[in-house]
Structures are given as structure tokens and as C-alpha cells.
Amino acid sequence: MAALRHAYTTLFIALLLAAPSDAAESMERVRECVRENAPRSSVVLEVSLRTREAKGESTPTRLKLYWRRLPDGERRALIRFSAPEELAGSAVLLQGIGDARPRVHLYLPELGRPQQVSSREQLTRFLGRSDLGLEEIAILLDPVGDPNLRLLDGAAAVDGRPAWAFEW
């Protein structure tokens, strides 16, 4: 488990490199860095998100993402929520992620068993309770795969270290 976390940590540390001045060249360097350093078979991520509402209130969403590539090439992702309180214990399982539409199962503690999600709207309604959307899930699963990824600053800094800043 520690090795998996280390592998993904290495991925993000590798992104904290000085970027060339050309945005297109920077984007290609980042994508290449992710391809070279991304875990090949599995990873576990702990994610914490905060959403600020118009009133200034902040709502935390906490989840663990388990991603695995099976020997036959199929990919699976399990997302388990621990916050907010009304979602704690809920989970989303995505199977067959890739070019094909994934099979999606949703687990709600009050139902006591997983149910297959038959429409995008069902999943969107559930995720809306967490302030997490399908786009954010796609970013968690493939941080640089979105063609709309745009370089904001090639000379940013994170904790005093050079970094690239992007917008999705």
C-alpha cells in the first residue's frame, strides 16, 4: 500500500519541475512525465475537496479512490466517501474505464447493497450531493487526459518549488 502511495506521490513530485516557456511544449512535457511516472497496475488516493458556497460556507468532501488495472487490461475505480456525513459509507464503482462507456454501480448504506446505475442522470444526482462531478472524477482518473487542459502559469510555485499551474 505504501508503495502505491509512493508511486503516485512520485508522479506529482515529477510535475513540480521548471517548465519551458512555450505552452504547447510544456503541455507535452507534463503529459510525458505523467505517462512515465503513473502507476502501471494500481493506486490509492486520498482526496479532500472544499466547496465554497455563495454565503461563504465551506463544505468538505473526503473520499478514497482505489484504481486498478486488471491483467486483461480492464480498469476499475472504486470511490468511497467519508464526508460529508450524509455520504459517509457511500461508494461508486466504475468498471471498464477507457474508450467504452464504463459500467457503474452505486452503493448507499441505507440500501445495504450496490445497484447498477442505468443513466448518467442517476450518477449526476448522487454526485451532486458531494459537490463532485463527472468531470472531476475523470480528472482524478486521468489528470492530464482532458484535451481542455490549459496551462495557466509555467513558472508557478508550490511551497517554494517550481511548478506548472493548469486549469481544466
Spans of at least 5 consecutive residues whose pLDDT stays below 50 are 1-21
Query: How many beta-strand segments?
Result: 8
Q: Structural class, judged by helices and strands?
A: alpha+beta
Q: What proportion of the residues is helical, as a percent range?
A: 25-40%
Lateral strand order in the biggest sheet: 1-2-3-4-5-6
Short description:
By secondary structure, the protein is an alpha+beta fold.
Topology record:
Blueprint lengths: L1 H14 L7 H15 L4 E11 L5 E12 L5 E9 L7 E5 L7 E5 L6 E3 L3 H9 L5 H8 L8 E9 L2 E7 L1
Antiparallel strand pairs: 1-2, 2-3, 3-4, 4-5, 5-6, 7-8
Helix pairs in contact: 1-2
Structure description:
It contains four helices and eight strands. It has 168 residues and is of the alpha+beta class. Strands 1-2-3-4-5-6 form a six-stranded antiparallel beta sheet. A two-stranded antiparallel sheet has the order 7-8. A hairpin with a 7-residue loop joins β4 (91-95) and β5. It is globular, with a radius of gyration of 17 Å.
List keywords for this structure.
single chain; two-stranded antiparallel sheet; globular; 168 residues; alpha+beta; 6-stranded antiparallel beta sheet; 4 helices; disordered N terminus
